[in-house]
Design goal:
- By secondary structure, the chain is of the alpha/beta class.
- It has a single domain, classed as Rossmann fold, CATH 3.40.50.
- It contains seven helices and nine strands, in the order βαβββαββαβαβααβα.
- The strands form two sheets. Strands 2-7-1-8-9 form a five-stranded parallel sheet, with helices on both faces. Strands 4-3-6-5 form a four-stranded mixed sheet.
- Strand 5 and strand 6 form a beta hairpin.
- The protein is globular and about 40 Å long.
- GO terms for molecular function: kinase activity.
- It comes from Siminovitchia fordii.
Length: 181
């Protein structure tokens, strides 16, 4: 089956697009704080840094990465379900996508969600209630790491200028990929 990995900078619309899909969501474990409207155990499995490190030492994760100072990990039991035939969608950074593609090859489909501009990106982060210092930190990180250039490493790119259109494009990609087993 397929694992649809969504990538994109914070505020690009990844969550709004991918949660419109009729697939199970692969919940990552992370040390990041919950955002407004997120549900612990569904959007993320929030865990302390110490707890994350302990689980990692115990072999709980298939892959781990660090993004903007927070740790993220894919639990092994979800990969087992994927291999047995359950399609999932998830959110990953470029390192997570590369690790999953290396281990799962053609089961992984990467989709980069791109904002129309960094100005619109900042406006979206303000609208969702991000703190000004966090927005500034994220925009600086995006610029310093050239994170928007990650689109050249993925299977598909969706420019999220209009949310409904971007959701339709994501659904079309999923249908195409599921039919092309």
């Amino acid at each position: 089956m397929k694992l649809f990995c969504f990538m994109g900078v914070s505020g690009s619309g990844k969550s709004s697009i991918q949660h419109s899909l009729p697939l199970r969501f692969m919940t990552n474990y992370t040390t990041r704080s919950l955002r407004e409207g997120e549900i612990d155990g569904y959007h993320i499995n929030q865990i302390s840094r110490e707890g994350f490190i302990k689980l990692n030492r115990e072999g709980f994760f298939y892959e781990t990465s660090e993004y903007a100072g927070n740790l993220y990990g894919t639990p092994n039991h979800v990969i087992d379900e994927l291999i047995k035939g359950t399609p999932f969608h998830c959110t990953k950074d470029i390192n997570g996508v590369k690790a999953l593609k290396e281990g799962l090859d053609n089961k992984v489909v990467s989709i980069f969600i791109k904002p129309p501009s960094t100005n619109i990106l900042a406006m979206r982060m303000i609208k969702r209630g991000d703190k000004p210092k966090d927005i500034e930190k994220r925009i600086k990180y995006i610029q310093e790491t050239n994170e928007l250039d990650n689109e050249k490493y993925v299977d598909y790119v969706i420019v999220n200028a209009d949310l409904k259109q971007a959701q339709i494009e994501a659904h079309q990609i999923v249908i195409k990929e599921l039919l092309n087993k």
